[in-house]
User: What shape does this take?
Amino acid sequence: MGKEKTADGRLRQLLGPALGLEENDLDLLAGFLNYKKLNPGEALFKEGESGDFAAFILDGVMQVKKETEFPGKHFVLAILSRGAAVGEFPLTNGCTPLYRRASAEALKITELAILDRKEFDSLCIRHPQIALSLLRTFLKCACLRLQGANQRMAAVF
Assistant: This one.
């Protein structure tokens, strides 16, 4: 069940406009979030790990990378900063456990708001409009990232 919290200024500034939520809805959402701080080089998750959460970057920069066929070599999929969602696929997929398709690590000190599967499921039941706003945002992020990947691939060929 959600914790009683109010949304801090960063959450309001970054997620409010993106999600189209009013202040009272942001306060409700804040009760379902946990917070984490990562140091540079620290992983939020690694490729192949089981994953059941998504995160919003409140401050800092993260790198999302995929292992290649060459040992120790990675392909950088994205550099994400304030306001971006990372690792959202497990919440949108609906099946657990889901294994991470890439790794995400902090490039600078990074502060995150974490929404895990249990809290997301509770949010869906208790506040479906807020959950729908989150899902729309996740879909928009995925579409923008796919467009970017398509443009990069087209530039190579």
About this structure: The CA atoms of residues 94 and 117 lie 9 Å apart.
